[in-house]
Amino acid sequence: MMTVRSARIYFSLILAVIIGVTAWASTYESVWDGFVHVGREPWGLATLADAYLGFMTFYAWVLYRENSMMRKFVLLPVILFFGNIAMSLYVLWLAFKLPADASVERILFNEKRNE
Q: Is the residue at 29 inside a domain?
């Protein structure tokens, strides 16, 4: 069984790698220049579509999980702009609110829902 401690490690690694790759890439060219280059290539556009549809899939889970309308409203642009960095931070935020030995299901499902 995966625990919250495991999720903390897993999503911390994802966060570290994506921040590292983003920092490395930014030393070569700006985000905007990179976007222009990617936008000119069919596989670049396919990759962007795949990424943003993945972000929207993750956001569907956020909509299910969150009770707060304000968080639902704020998290969409944050996820769309910051992508996997925002997604990893969101899961880490949830994970650090729980005991380390708790089951990962406590992250995945909102226990306060009355469904």
A: yes
